[in-house]
Amino acid sequence: MALDFRAASDEYLGWLQLEANRSPNTVRAYSHDIRRLGGFLADNGHSLQMADLRHEDLRAYQRHLAGTLRSPASRARALVAVRSWLRWLARERLLDLDLSNGITLPKLEQRLPKPIEPEELARLLSALPGETPLEKRNRALVHFLISTGCRISEALALERTDIPRQGNRLIVTGKGSKQRPVYLTEDAKAALEDYLQNRTDACMALFVNYDRKIGDDRARRLTGAGARHIVRRLRVQLGAWSFKSPHVARHTTATTLLEVTGGDVRLVQEVLGHANLNTLQGYTKIVDSRKQDAYRRYQEFLDKQKT
User: Fold this and answer.
1) What is the C-alpha to C-alpha distance for residues 86 and 98, in angstroms, rounded to an integer?
2) Which residues pair with 182 in a beta bridge?
3) Most C-beta atoms within 10 A of its C-beta, which of 49, 181, 218, 238?
4) Which residues contact 34 (CB under 8 A, 6 or more apart)?
5) pLDDT by residue (tens digit) across 219-267?
6) 155 close to 206: Cβ distance less than 8 angstroms
7) pTM to 2 decimals?
8) Which domains, from first to last, does the chain contain?
């Protein structure tokens, strides 16, 4: 029985969700990128039978993406999904040929993560207001992100019962439903306890939306968009200009941990839940740069003592 494009993509997406246990967001993104290839093939008169797919078709698609997606990162994301799909089809013997080697990813310029600078971080944490219930939530959220290095999606998926009554260790669920322990600083634990003690709603979510228009407590879980809005407001309110998004807190945690542990990359990998050590190269470069700057200032100090 001939396998057409739609059936082949459905088979793979089902495998991603049910067997590979990928997150719904990942499955949606891969579905979009694979369907994009299908749309290109259909619009340009190519066969949608998988047995007819050739390297020439994939090269034409890559040229199409180069003309429509200006960002190399966007093209790379679109092609990674297609390459993974084709590799899986060959491995499952749904395709006679492994066409994944015909996918060439564009070279990406490595961008270093931009953490909050230590002085600015200290000012931010000390200046966070905490009088009203909303302010208590915001303070608890920022402290939690800085303390644990969690992705915002991981933080917002937590229940209020996940916060330990004793100790500072809790379990979060990351990408691929992989669980890992994270730890709360004393300030983060105190901020969370203060926030939770003042909660009067019945919502089980750890971080909630205080919008009065929400009548059902079960619908009060804070969203990613809501968390980004909180960070943008705090950034302006407190002058924390490098705190551009919740993810910056994750960069800050990684960089700070590398500095205080003397560059223990394995530990930081475990805390952040990264599968690949290469992901942490950007952080190590930042730490190295700070060390070099410290030694430069130290040398300047010594030079002044000679005069």
Assistant:
1) 7
2) 170
3) 238
4) 9, 12, 13, 81, 82, 85
5) 889 999 999 999 999 999 999 889 999 999 988 888 888 787 777 778 7
6) yes
7) 0.65
8) 5-102 (1.10.150.130), 118-246 (1.10.443.10)
